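User: I've been trying to design a sequence by hand for this structure and keep getting stuck. Would you show me what you'd pick, starting by listing the structure so we're on the same page?

Assistant: Good idea, let's start from the same input. This is the structure you sent:
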């Protein structure tokens, strides 16, 4: 009687929760570069920090927002503000602008926000999108944010030097970042002009 052949299987490595960037449809989306942390070629701090260019663009947009927005009407939150959309969907945004009648004082706590921002702004992404591809991730996340009640989503993509504006029931608007883009209520920003004024050169 032949001896049965057994195959040794290697157990799948458990990925620590601290490497989870977002959760979408119950599945974790990890920080970009998480595999390097698992392989011990990078530290957690190496992959979690944003680039100096990302930080510069966040600061630029925040300056515009705080200059023109009514603080009595809106709350402006940053630092990867999280949104708990529903069970299995926890997403984050670089900048989120909330109407104070929606994000009332009693809803501010130690948990993710359970109400939608009026405007969500993303500058690149810290997510590992290898399983969805970059565009697939953007589409899926944007659809969930719109269904959640977000009225305007702005994606600024550094590699392609484009700005994508997404609103409910409208075609996506993809523009070069050297054009004036409306932030809200007629107030605009222009990434290329700002970088030129600051003497910042972004390589192709």
């Amino acid at each position: 009687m032949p001896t049965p052949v057994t195959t040794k299987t290697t157990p799948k490595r458990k990925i620590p929760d601290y490497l989870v960037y977002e959760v979408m449809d119950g599945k974790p989306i990890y920080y970009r570069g998480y595999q390097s942390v698992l392989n011990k070629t990078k530290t957690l701090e190496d992959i979690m920090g944003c680039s100096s260019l990302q930080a510069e663009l966040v600061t630029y947009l925040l300056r515009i927002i705080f200059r023109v927005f009514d603080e009595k009407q809106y709350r402006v939150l940053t630092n990867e503000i999280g949104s708990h959309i529903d069970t299995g969907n926890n997403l984050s945004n670089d900048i989120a602008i909330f109407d104070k009648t929606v994000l009332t004082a009693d809803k501010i706590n130690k948990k993710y926000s359970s109400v939608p921002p009026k405007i969500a702004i993303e500058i690149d992404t810290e997510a590992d999108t290898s399983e969805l591809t970059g565009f697939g991730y953007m589409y899926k996340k944007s659809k969930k944010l719109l269904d959640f009640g977000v009225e305007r989503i702005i994606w600024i993509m550094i590699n392609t030097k484009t700005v994508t504006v997404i609103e409910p029931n409208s075609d996506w608007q993809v523009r070069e970042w050297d054009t004036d883009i409306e932030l809200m209520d007629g107030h605009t920003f222009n990434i290329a002009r700002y970088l030129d004024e600051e003497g910042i050169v972004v390589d192709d």
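That's my pick for every position. To get oriented when you compare it with your attempt: The longest strand covers residues 74-86. The helical segments are 34-38, 44-48, 52-68, 134-148, 191-198.
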